[in-house]
Amino acid sequence: MLPLAPTEPEAPPDPVATGGRPRRRWIAFVVALVLLVSAVIGAALIPVPYVALRPGAVRSVSERVSVDGAPSYPPSESIAFTTVGLRRTSLLEAFVGWLDDEVDVRPEEVILGDRTRDENRRYNAELMDSSKLVATAVALDRMGEAVTITTTGAIVRGIAEDSPAAEALELDDVIVAVDGEPVDEIGVVGDLLQAGGPGASHTLTVERPAGSDTRVDVDVTTIAAPDDPSRAIIGIDPEDRISAFDFPIDVTIDSGAVGGPSAGLAFTLAVLDVLTPGELTGGRKVAVTGTMDLDGRVGPVGGGAQKGFAVRDAGYEVFLVPSDELDEVREAVGDEVDVIAVDTLGEALEALQSLGGDVGSLLTAEDEAA
């Protein structure tokens, strides 16, 4: 037999060709997965400068009203006020909120303005305290009771963009005088600005910051109001700074931890409901939103859609809202809730009367003429 040809020993297996490449692919997959999970966790935890407005609660008011010094008539079916849930969001929560029809995601600066979160909480607590006092004053005045109000200026709560006030005033300034005349009566700042008509220059004495002893004089020139060319304005939303109320009846409203002014109309109606015989709601489940001014005007606040969802989900039949928020609320709740626009206390009482409510003598000739 011929001898076998010598053979070369086999080369060791190529780690790259066998186990190395799959191993590297596995490592790359694990790294990618870790990065993805980290990104998801970061999106879920890292806050972004946005806030989410969500449907809040619907709370009965009448049982929160206590009276001393007059008979009370607690109704069986109470007027209710509405709230909006407000919280800062993470990136993931903001994204989910943008996809949810019941959530409104807005930039934080739109909600807070120039205030910090703590300052905004204090601010809303002050607005709630003020709204309860104003609601009580308006309700007692509607009943013919004598109410004495002392003011010490007008707080600048809003400034219209590109208005004369935008260059001269800051939010929360307190106008204590106009051309040397003190702002010491309800709504007088608007009256004092009428001198000279649109185009006239005025000197405003301003307390800045509010509550301090520092006062500055600023000059401003009025313009004509869009709805009335003869009326002079400077483009502000003033709120009378009330130093004292003198009520003939001791009324207390327990608002709990809720802040803001949006329950003003609800509080006003609830006080009237408790202090007068019968039921303003006529036994219907009625929810209400809107601020209340001392002259009986109802103002919008925002979050109408979220409040509408809350009212619908809580099973309420009727929702009284400021006219500026009517379309928003109706779009949110459709035909599931009877949404009625009201812009004054008189209109709110008329709406309740149309529902079978015991309005009695609370409606005035002026309401009926309007």
Can you tell me about this structure?
This protein has 370 residues and is of the alpha+beta class. The protein folds into 2 domains: 48-147 and 249-365, Ribosomal Protein S5, domain 2 (2-Layer Sandwich), CATH 3.30.230; 150-243, PDZ domain (Pdz3 Domain, Roll). It is 34% helix and 28% strand. It has 11 helices and 18 strands. It has helices at residues 16-45, 91-99, 108-112, 117-142, 164-168, 188-192, 264-275, 304-313, 326-333, 345-354, 365-369; strands at residues 47-60, 65-68, 80-90, 104-107, 148-159, 174-178, 181-182, 201-207, 215-221, 223-225, 228-233, 236-246, 250-253, 286-288, 291-292, 298-299, 318-321, 338-341. A 6-stranded mixed β-sheet has the order 4-1-3-14-17-18, sandwiched between helices. Strands 5, 6, 7, 8, 9 and 12 form a 6-stranded antiparallel β-sheet that branches. A hairpin with a 7-residue loop joins strand 8 (201-207) and strand 9 (215-221). Helix 4 packs parallel to helix 7 and helix 8 crosses helix 9 (326-333). The radius of gyration is 31 Å and the shape is globular. The protein starts with 15 loop residues before the first helix and ends with a helix. 35% of the residues are buried. Residues 1-7 have low confidence and may be disordered.
